[in-house]
From TrEMBL:
Keywords assigned: ATP-binding, Nucleotide-binding
Keyword ATP-binding on entry: yes
Biased composition (Polar residues): 2-13
Residues of the full protein shown: 93 to 356 of 369
Domain AAA+ ATPase: 50-186
Organism of this sequence: Rubrobacter marinus
Full protein name: AAA family ATPase
Region spans: Disordered: 1-13
Annotated GO MF terms: ATP binding; ATP hydrolysis activity
Family assignment from sequence similarity: Belongs to the AAA ATPase family.
């Protein structure tokens, strides 16, 4: 969320270490976003214009938002995250003003990253909306992006599950002209994601994450995170059973009082 007081930096705490897999995607984003922020002189020297807009597309829960947060944090950029549906609903009646404010906040606090999450929720093809309110918003967004001349200092990132539903004008050069696919994680990435989401859990030392990788073929990162949480909750809810007593009977030394503290 934005809503920062003047002068205050809004930088998320997510780092690249929180992102499982996606090594190539991270490298692409670093080149597209981090490099122009850290070394604008390279772009000036080469006479090339950094991308203004980057479109991250792929199935739900694959870490698109997570990635945008990590890039903002790692570059120290001011971060303004807008949920697409929020622009339509929460700011109903003031959406255009809200869009203008977002862009001026970014300019004032540059380097900045503006994230439009689920951009398709308000930026679908305008033909299908004719003269609707959404069509006005898309036009507004396009003119704000066209007017951006802080080359590389402000970057607009948008995420969508349905790139083909977007208004094609948004995908033209000078707008969201760099598209990066974020797909479902492969086995290596799933292992990495499972490690991240179990790193603070008291898992058994012999827990075989490779077996879980084999069982979770079509899982997204968000599915894997939910699975880890459910497994932890199941363990917490499990009542103590006969097997627990049997195991203890076999090792218990009579007359000894042992107190074990668990550090969760
Ligand atoms: P949507 O398209 O539904 O908005 P998304 O692609 O933006 O989804 P996120 O919102 O970033 O996905 O993912 C939700 C949560 O799932 C993240 O906050 C994170 O906890 C977990 N997650 C997803 N992908 C990964 C990943 N690659 N590594 C670690 N965690 C992940």
């Amino acid at each position: 969320a934005s809503g920062t007081t003047p002068g205050q930096r809004n930088v998320p705490t997510t780092t690249y270490a929180d992102v499982g897999g996606m090594r190539e995607t991270i490298a692409l984003l670093r080149e597209a976003i981090e490099l122009p922020i850290a070394h604008p002189e390279i772009f000036q020297k080469l006479g090339i214009r950094p991308h203004k807009g980057i479109l991250l597309y792929g199935p739900p829960g694959t870490g698109k938002t997570l990635l945008a947060r990590a890039v903002a944090n790692e570059t120290g950029a001011h971060f303004i995250a807008i949920a697409g549906p929020e622009i339509l609903n929460k700011y109903w009646g003031q959406s255009e003003q809200r869009l203008r404010n977002i862009f001026s906040e970014a300019r004032n606090k540059a380097p900045a990253i503006i994230l439009f999450d689920e951009i398709d929720s308000f930026a679908s093809a305008r033909d299908s909306m004719s003269e609707s309110f959404e069509a006005t918003l898309v036009s507004q967004l396009l003119s704000l992006m066209d007017g951006m001349n802080d080359a590389g200092r402000v970057c607009v990132v948008a995420t969508t599950n349905r790139p083909s539903a977007l208004d094609p004008a948004l995908r033209r050069p000078g707008r969201f002209d760099h598209e990066v696919e974020v797909g479902l994680p492969d086995p290596e990435a799933r292992l990495h994601i499972l490690k991240i989401h179990t790193r603070d859990m008291p898992v058994a030392p012999d827990l075989d994450l490779d077996t879980i990788v084999g069982l979770t073929r079509d899982y997204s990162g968000a599915d894997l995170e939910a699975l880890c949480r459910e497994a932890a909750l199941a363990c917490m809810r499990r009542s103590i059973n006969l097997r627990d007593f049997e195991q203890k009977v076999s090792t218990h030394k009579l007359g000894s009082l042992s107190v074990t503290t668990y550090d969760f």
